[in-house]
Structure formats: structure tokens, C-alpha cells
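COURSE: Structural Biology Practicum
ASSIGNMENT: Worksheet 4, Part C
STUDENT ID: 0417
INSTRUCTIONS: Below are two proteins. For each, the amino acid sequence is given first, followed by its C-alpha cell string. Answer the questions at the end about the second protein only.

PROTEIN I
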Amino acid sequence: MAGLEFSRLLEVDARLTSKMRIAERPGGLRTSAALLAHSGDSWFWLLGLGVVWLAGNAFWKTRAVSLAAGVLLTAVIVLAVKFLVRRKRPEGTWGGIYRSTDPHSFPSGHAARAVMLAMLALALGPAWLAVLLVLWAPLVCLARVAMGLHYLSDVIAGIGFGLVMGIVIGLAL
């Protein structure tokens, strides 16, 4: 009985995911979604935080180190869960680099990272950065589904991971 209910849940997930998908539709919305989908990449954040650390004062150096540690720790935990679950990404061609380097979709690392960064910005400040990241994070999450890289449930789980990681890391700082 539980297996049947889980199968139905996966079917609903796939159907909702399909309705949200815009990867195959050219236009401004697709371009925006593609940019947002990439904006949560670990390498992008680590590179940017490295620049902030090099160019920043003591306040920004501390923030850069804290956020980079959060990015790395979240990536390790999410990757471990991905290899335990091994859920294949939705079918598609967009995002070939993600599909070849990380074929597993559950949970969404981008969603976890975006939410974790927003949570840490809320805890550490400054307020303008917190507002910016709180607005950006859900857009990244939606973009990952819209571009066909994740099922909706992957992103929901990633949001949960990001909230937990943000709280745990924020309390540890």
C-alpha cells in the first residue's frame, strides 16, 4: 500500500514538474531562468567569495569565509545524500554539464545552497545582502525546475536542507 502511494506521489511530482518546465521554449523567460539556474553554482559562489575575501575589509573577509564554509559543507552533505538516493534527473538536454558531472537530482544542491546562503545572510548581515539573497533563493529554486534539471520534490527537499544547514551553520558561528 505504501509503495502504491509513493508511486502516485512520484507521478504527481513528475506532472507538476512538467508543467513548470520552460527549457524548450525560447524567449526572455527561458534566458532569465537559465541565468538564475546557473547563478547558484558552487564554483561561482566560491570564486566570488574569494574575490570578496581578497578585496574586502575585516567585516567582509569574515562573511566570505563563513559563506564559503557553508557552501562547501552543504555541498558535501548534499552530494552524500545524492549518492545514497541516486534519483536520475528529469529527461532533457539543457544543462549538459550538470547531467554529465552529477547525474543525480535528489536533493537539489542549488536549492540547498541558495537557501543556506540566504539564511546565513539573515544571521550575519548586512541587511541589504539578506534581502537580496532571500529574494534570489526562491528564483534559483524555480529556475532549476523550469530548466528541467530537477523535479519539484528535489527542490523542496533542497530547500529543507538549506534551511537546516543555514540554521546549524548560523548557530555555530
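PROTEIN II
(use this one for the questions)
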Amino acid sequence: MKQTRVALVTGGNRGIGLEVCRQLARSGVTVLLGARDLQAGKAAAGQLASQLNVTAVKLDITSDPDIAGVRAHVEREFGALDILVNNAAVLIGEDSSILEVSDAELRDTFETNVVAQLAMCRAFVPAMVARRYGRVVNVSSTAGQLQSMGTYAPAYSISKTALNALTKTIAESVSGTGVLVNCVNPGWVRTDMGGPHAPLSVEQGADTIVWAATLADNGPTGAFLSGRRKIAW
């Protein structure tokens, strides 16, 4: 039996992703920090690696070769992945209205925020099912919450609604296998995406993601989580 859990965090070289890497590693998890730019990933991992077990891997989640390469690395070095945090995302056409957002903006947003998230799950979840253990956290947003949805960033918001639906579907498909799949709203966080006036720190934004990534076996699955509790879709 492996001594430590192994996690992969996409978009791990800055913001919430980097803080998730830090908090997971502090809890004793071996962390693979995924970054589109490997040098940026190595620089970020270098901030943590002196005391924590964090290694950068090149991972553009829209690149099938990159995903295959990381999966091969995981299989070779660890056998399988225990924790997948799908954090990487794009925010395009933030100020466009739904009637103005371009087809290209919609396609590019969905390619990263939905299609690539499914590709990551297809790459790593089957091995979790085979081992009867896994935690998948898809980083979502209340921008995609139907209950409160408005006009903000339509491509991004609709993509997060789709991500929530994807999360629910995957969770149902692996029900009873020991793999828990949830989506998390980190809140409005002070990052490059969230801006300097957001009310939450990256430490606060990462908290529920890390909690969901390390749930006990009787933890929730197929849920939309915020502040360590279930919220409405």
C-alpha cells in the first residue's frame, strides 16, 4: 500500500492552484503541479519544494499529448493518481453580453472549461475506480449557479454550469466505487482572474478545494460545495 496520496493540480503555478498545491503538500500529499509553461511550473514548485513534496509537470489540459504524457508519468512513478484537482480555466469575453459574445469566445471557453475537464477525468478516473479510491474536485463558480445566474461573463458562466452538470454525471457513473467527485465554488478570490478587490485570500479560496480533495470515504459526492457545505445548483 502506498505511504502517501498522490495529487495532480491543473493550473497549479499561480493563484488558487498554487495555494491548493501548498496546502495539500503540507498535509503530506505528494503533489504534481500542472502548468502549461513548464518553466513557470518549475519556478512555482521551487517556492514550495524546499520543504514540501511538489514537482512540476508540463500540462496544457487542452493538449491530448500533454495529458497522455502526465498519465504515463503517474503510472510509471506512482501506479495511479489518488486526487485530481481540475483547477485550470479561462475567463474570456468577461464584459460581453450573451448576444454579443463571439462563437470563438464560446468555443475557446468550453474547450478549456468543459471539454478538457472531461478529458482529464477520462485519463485518470478509470484507474481510481480500479483501485477503489479517488477524489476528483472540479473548480467551479457561483457564476454558473442557476439559482443566482445573471448576465456576468456569459461564456464563462455557462461553461461553469456545464462543468457542474459534468461533475454530477461523472459522480453518478462511478457511484459506489470509492471515487468521490464534486465541484467547488472557491468564492471571489484575490487572484489574476479575481482581481485585487476580491474579498477572499487565496488561502481562503483553496480551503474547500483541499477539504474536498481529502474527504473521508463517507464524504459527499456529486455535490456543489462552498464553505465546506453543499449549496444549491
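ANSWER KEY EXCERPT:
Q1: Residues 103-131 form the longest helix (29 residues).
Q2: The beta strands are 6-9, 30-35, 54-58, 83-86, 134-139, 179-184, 224-226, 229-230.
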